[in-house]
Each structure stands twice: as C-alpha cells, then as structure tokens.
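Hi there,

I know you've been waiting on this one. I reran it after we fixed the sequence typo, so this is the corrected version. Both the input and the resulting structure follow.
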Amino acid sequence: MRLFSLLLLLFCGLTYGQQGAYSIPRSQVIELTDHHSQHTYPLYIKLPASYAKNPSRHYPVIYLTDGHYSFQLVSGATRFPMNSGAMPEAILVAIGYAQGDKGQSSRVRDYTPTKESSWKLATGEAAKHARFIREQVFTHIQKNYRALATQRTYMGNSLGGLFGAYLLLQEPDMFSNYILGSPSVWFDNQSILALELKPSKAAPKVYIGVGSLETPAYGEGQDMVAGAQALFDKLRSLPASHSQIKLRIMEEARHATAFPSTSIQGLDWLLREGE
C-alpha cells in the first residue's frame, strides 16, 4: 500500500508537471506596426465558439483598449453568456501597449486627446492612435476575419474611457457602441467636455459605468463619479443627443474594481437582442 501511494504521488506529480500554461481557447496574438509612428502593438484576438462551424457567418467585433488587462477579463466574462446564447457571439480584439514602452507611457500618450505640458510622460496623441485603429486595425480584421464592419463596439476604462469619449465626440461613426468605464474626464482640466459632437450617420449606443467609491472621499485622486456624470449630462444635452445612453454607478466599487462590472453589464445592455 505504501508503494502504491508513492507511485500515485509520483504519477500525479508527473501529470501536473507536464501541464503547460493555460491559454484562452480560439485565441491568437499578432503584431501590427503603425505606419506613421512606427510603434508596434500586439493584438489579442479571440474567435467565437461557432466560428469554425459557420463559414458563411459574419460576427460583430468588440474592440478593447489596455489589452494586456482587458482581454483576459472580457474573454472570461463573456464565455458563458456567449456560449449559452444569452449574449450574441462576437469577435474580441484587444489592442495592447506599444512594444518597448512601459504600459503607462504607451497608454498616457495614445489615449489622451490633448497635450498636457505639466506631465512628464508624453500626452496628446489620441488622434494618431485613432488613425492607426481606423486605417490598420480595422483593415486587418476585415481582411482576415469574418467581421461585420457595421457592428463594432468600443470598450475602454480610465484613460481608455477618456479615449473612447474622444472618439465618440470626434469620430462617432468609428463604432456603433461605446462602453466608457470610469472615464478620466478630469484630464487637462476636463478639456474633453469642451469638444463638440461631430455629425454621425446613426447615433451610437453609449454605456458609461463608474464605481460609487471613485471619489477623493474614499481615497481616489480624482472624482470619477462627478466626471462620469458631467460627460453623461453633456451627451444628453447636445442637439444631436444620443437616443440610447446609460449611466450606471456601481455601488461599493472603487477605481481598481469597477471595470469588471462595467464591461459585462455594458455588453449585456448594448448587445442583448431585442434592445
């Protein structure tokens, strides 16, 4: 019996030792280089469960910023809803940070719409990053995957939420849906609120999410709740107001914890069939 136990332990040890790192099913990572800036970005791509079995079917695409973080989170959160039919299946495309840059440097540069001279990091290249997404990322996805060009959802958090607000106001037709998590409206003295809404062919649906504890009273550096409310109010007050816009404040959520709820609840509201 002792020998059997030892052999069993050895077998179990060998079995676990032979296991490789976990990988997300039906996913791959490619690299795209921005022709203008020469920055190279990883794209994390995940195909729907039914993709291979339906060669004539085309799918909506959900585009994520901060890909190193958001890809794993949204992939896991949407697995059951999409596989069970509770949410329409979609292709996930997460854009990571530029190679050779620290994540914070890349996102501060690419996600901020205006130059802020008081920052040590480079700022204000949102328009350039938008061009990269529009001209190269979209083109690559449309060319290589069965993607619906008319059904694109944007999702970004914090500075990614600010970038999404910039796209919504300046290039609203880039995406049909926008999920803006805890948008950094405070950046550059709330200059995002001074931008006018450019004309769009069809008003996109917009979901803004923020944690109720994202205020200085609970240790945050900025009042993200007030910023989200101000952005919501601006969008609702514009002459060409979006007919479908929602602001949700997640109770007991901080800046570091609000995005998971924003991502899945936002997708549920935006993509649920029949909405």
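Quick highlight: Residues 24-271 form a domain with the Rossmann fold fold (CATH 3.40.50.1820).

Best,
R. S.
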